[in-house]
Design a protein that fits this description.
The chain is mainly alpha-helical. The chain has one domain. Helices cover about 65% and strands about 0% of the residues. It has a two-stranded parallel sheet with strand order 1-2. The model has no long low-confidence stretch (mean pLDDT about 90). Pfam families: DUF4254.
Length: about 170
């Protein structure tokens, strides 16, 4: 099995978001995924302040700055996963192209995980239907992620060519 054969399945990535100590922190996708989960969770906290009509202007301004900082950090973390994936898969001869990078996909998993966790903690009965929908979307995205892993390992699909979007050197 080549090095790419050890790419973690969605269930492990999700576990890295919620229980980072329980997963193999030596695997780059899981280690970086744990940080992405933490960034998304912190982002939901900042978003909660921004959305609260009782928040004062100073709290909202601080939360907006925090949202920006979390978004920059998320971009850098997603790029770290992309750098790893490029090193593992390189240029592929596969004809089918996946439209987003592995880092972007793990970032979306983390976003839905954080959103589902936030809604699950809401005692308001009105939050039940949105919580079910978000869990359903998370489940579908996990299936899509696992299908991508299978296709990458079989050589059926390839990832887009890695290109740094933030302008920061993530390899350093």
């Amino acid at each position: 099995m080549n090095a790419a054969g050890v790419i973690p399945r969605a269930s492990l990535v999700i576990r890295a978001f919620s229980s980072p100590r329980e997963v193999d922190g030596d695997h780059p996708v899981l280690a970086v995924g744990a940080y992405l989960g933490a960034e998304h969770w912190a982002r939901t906290e900042a978003q909660r302040i921004v959305s609260d009509p009782c928040s004062d202007d100073h709290a909202i301004a601080a939360a907006l700055r925090a949202l920006h900082d979390h978004d920059v950090t998320r971009s850098r973390l997603a790029e770290q996963i992309d750098v790893w994936a490029t090193g593992q898969f390189g240029e592929s001869g596969a004809r089918l192209l996946h439209t987003e990078s592995l880092g972007q996909l793990v970032d979306r998993l983390a976003a839905l995980w954080a959103w589902s966790r936030l809604l699950a903690e809401d005692d308001d009965p009105a939050a039940r239907d949105p919580a079910k929908l978000v869990l359903h979307r998370l489940g579908e995205l996990c299936i899509g992620y696992d299908d991508l892993v299978t296709d990458l390992l079989s050589g059926r699909r390839r990832l887009p060519v890695y290109q740094a979007l933030t302008g920061h050197d993530v390899a350093a």
